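Batch job 17 of 40 flagged for manual review because the log was empty.
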Amino acid sequence: MSNFLESLRAALTAIFAHKLRSVLTTLGIIIGVMSVIAVVSLLQGFSVALSANFKGMGSNTVFVTSYLSRNDRLAGKTSKITTDDLLAIQHEVPGISRITPVIIMGFFTGEVRYQSQSTNSGIFGTTSGHAENTEFYPVQGRYL
């Protein structure tokens, strides 16, 4: 017990003899712990946000788009996926339960407002199957 008391006395003597060093060391430990807590909190927040986005998309959702090389696009060529292509994908690829066509109107974008909220959005056309696949439902209006 006397060794413990002697060690405690020596430690307190050193702390009071070097007050500035002791304060700076304590401050460094506090800032370090706060930084770790802040980083962990941010990462958990990002994780929750990403999980919510993926849940809304569907964990088993795949987006298929047509592809043109840069040279073909510069030459003015276009490509599209036809209804026959969608049906062929649905019948040939195992495990597909639903397919939803989407037409993205890239030129028509702007601000959309609802009550006190606003966001930038684009216009796209799809079928009612899109709501079943993504759990996005219109507040007003309907799918065609």
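Reviewer: the log was empty due to a logging misconfiguration, but the result itself is present. The radius of gyration is 30 Å. Unflagging and moving on to job 18.
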